[in-house]
Structures are given as structure tokens and as C-alpha cells.
Amino acid sequence: MNKIAFLFPGQGAQKAGMGKDFYEKYETARQIFDQASQWLDMDMKALCFEENDRLDLTEYTQAALVTTCLAMEKVVEEQGLYPDVTAGLSLGEYCAIEAAGGMKLQDAVTTVRKRGILMEQAVPAGKGSMTAVLGMDSRDIEKVTDSIEDVGIANYNCPGQIVITGKTEAVCEASQKLKEAGARRVMPLKVSGPFHSPMLSEAGKELGQVLAQVEISPLKIPYVTNVTAQYVKDSSQTKVLLEKQISSSIRWQQSVEAMIADGVDTFVEIGPGKTLAGFVKKISKDVQIYNIQTTDDLETVISACRR
Length: 307
What we know:
Elements: E1 4-8, H1 20-25, H2 27-40, H3 44-49, H4 58-78, E2 85-88, H5 92-99, H6 105-121, E3 128-134, H7 138-146, E4 151-158, E5 161-167, H8 168-180, E6 185-188, H9 201-211, E7 223-224, E8 231-232, H10 238-245, H11 252-261, E9 266-270, H12 275-283, E10 288-292, H13 295-305
Parallel strand pairs: 1-2, 1-9, 2-7, 9-10
Antiparallel strand pairs: 3-5, 3-6, 4-5, 7-8
Helix pairs in contact: 2-4, 2-6, 4-5, 4-6, 6-9, 9-10
């Protein structure tokens, strides 16, 4: 019998039209989009389904993406497919916690709306940046970033793909040294700030105040936290981990490796894009990987995975 993990993407996966076919076909998804519109006092359908300038703004992206992914996830479970463990990349961890039973859907949506605003406002424009480093071992990258102040690793995505973050000048210096040290490609990212760096520590503290008002429930299944890449089975840790996560490295590769070591052999990415599925393929060739971003995908995956 397959051991299944549900995976949820982070910021950057969003695209106009995401979730629209789920909204049109499934009452469960329709209710979630409509409820999110009421909770946040914004037109979530217009934000997610139509071409617009707001979807790529952090303060809107996060709520839109979590609403979409959880609307899809509820339909997946309604169709009879359930996970044994969940995980999400950065923002996606809120979906993972909700799907694991640790947070109410309304709290997940409203909290990430506030999280997005805090992250957007955390660092003045131009003061911080992020850069993807391709084709270089993480230990070699760490040697470079450890030698420079105000730069560190934001994301351990998969073998050969690491993201660095920090003050713009420090990231530029590290980028040049990484090129000289043999990185195949160094690519600045179009983001609004130095996410997952100590520069967001204050935003993390403010997020902690938001989380203090959120009810965290006992988990029905475990989830894997980005901060330590370990299973979380006791939800009493959740608020502290989410506060840390905003300024800590995202250990995605290590998280996937932990799930594989625990016997997970089937990964189902739920949400727009196929970024996480791509990462998992580079981490292991020995697991089954599926992606659900349309209702057609849903039917295919349910047929392949249903127990």
C-alpha cells in the first residue's frame, strides 16, 4: 500500500486562472473561495481567476495561493484520496498544517494575509534581494556565504538548486564569488524582499503576535516543518516554528528526504505549477510523483493513487 505525502507550493507558483475549474465544478471549492472573499473582504475570484496586477504582490499572493491550494485539497479528500503526511514550501506550510488538522481553514487564510503584509513591509525596497544558485553543491555554497556578512541560504530546494538571501550588496558579492567558485548559473530572483533571512526577524516577531490569537488543534497526521526538516507530531510546536520560519532557511530537500526515509513512496503536489514535483524528481528517482492543478489532473491522480 502506498504511503502518500501531500505537498503544497510556496509563493511564486501563483498564476491567473488557478483554481477556476475547481470552483466551477465542485461545490466544496466554491464555498472556500466564497468564504475567503468574506473573511478578507476582497474578491478572491477576481484575484485568482482574472489577469490582474495584484496577484504577484506579496500581500495578496499569499492569501490567494493558500485559498486555492486548500480549495483543491478539500476536493481531493472528498474524492477519496488522503495523505499520511503533509509538507509545504514556505507559505505552503500553512496549507500543510491545515490539511494535517492543526489549523482551521479560516485561520490559515486570514493569517497568511497578515503574513504577506508583514513580509512586504519588512525591508525597504532595494535593501535586500534573493538569488538562485544552480549547479553547485550546498556545502560549497555555504563556504562562500559563511565568509560574507549579511547573506545566507534561503532555500535548499534540491540537488543543484539553492537560493541565497540577504542584504543586496552582500548577495551581489556572494554571487560573484559563487560564479568564480564554479556555479553553473547565478540568477537574481524577482522578489520584493530578502525572504528567509535574519532581516525578517522583526516581521517574525510581529507574526508571532498574530499567531498568538490563532487556535492550534491537535494534529490528525504529522507534517514536516521547513525549519528543521523533521516531522511535527505535537502541534504545540507549531506557532514557534512558523515564527522562526519567516527568517530561517527552508530545508525542502531535507524535508523530502525525511519523508522518503519514513517510507513515503508517493508524492502529490496540490496547487498551481509543478515546481515541487520537479524538486522531488531531482531528489529521488525511486518515488511516484503526481501533480494536481486542474480538475483533469485530479481525475487522473485519483485513479492512480486511490487505495
